[in-house]
Amino acid sequence: MGFAPLFNAFQLLLTLYVALIAFILLVLVPIAFIARIPIKRFVQAIAEPVSIAFATTSSEAALPRAMEAMESIGVPRRIVAFVMPTGYSFNLDGTTLYLSLAAVFVAQAAGVELSFGQQLVMVFTLMLTSKGVAGVPRASLVILLATVASFNLPSWPVFIILGIDALMDMARTAVNVIGNCLATAVVARWEGEFVDNYVAEPIDDLAEEDSALAQHTH
């Protein structure tokens, strides 16, 4: 077999990154324009939480900063507190794209032809079974193993994916966070609660006010 499995795994990795970039440009960016989300401020706000998600491969690690970032661009706290945790369970764009590609990769590696109907059923199955995996790195592999087994596909191609799964997990987790942050901003705009000219109070000023209040109390 030589380097053939490694080359195939690299092709899968490249395909995933291209698919995720295309999803951002063709789906998320148009949604942001339609909802009139300030793109520059939004990108600047989510840069840190997305970086945390990319580095840790865990959406949960980026949740506090993501929530703060959404509040800093004018999304009310009550909307952030409801939409963001809900999205972490039900809005996993990057994970669903990854699982769909990985399932097709498994079928192709095993030489199994899947009809369009079978592929469609598999995608819907993966969408349902992937809910709630945002906080667990590499949990998608367990979902993938269970799904391919239910479709009578062999499990050995999954172990080829295991070698590059860390690199794939970084990208899909980052996209999950981007999608959830955008969904939060869109819901705020939909509800008429988005504050366009919101300016967050500097942390230093808040600290000074707390210190002055404490001195006055004493």
* Second CATH tier, the architecture: Orthogonal Bundle
N-to-C order of helices and strands = HHHHHHHHHH
Query: Beta-sheet strand percentage?
Result: under 5%
- The level of helicity is over 70%
Report on the structure:
This protein has a single domain, classed as Proton glutamate symport protein (Orthogonal Bundle). The chain is built from 10 helices and no strands. The chain has helices spanning 4-34, 39-56, 59-72, 77-90, 93-109, 116-129, 139-150, 156-162, 165-190, 203-217. 35% of the residues are buried. The model is unreliable at 202-210 and 212-218 (pLDDT under 50).
Sum up the structure in keywords.
218 residues; mainly alpha; Proton glutamate symport protein
TL;DR of this structure?
With 218 residues, this protein is mostly helical.
Secondary-structure topology with pairs:
Layout: H1 4-34, H2 39-56, H3 59-72, H4 77-90, H5 93-109, H6 116-129, H7 139-150, H8 156-162, H9 165-190, H10 203-217
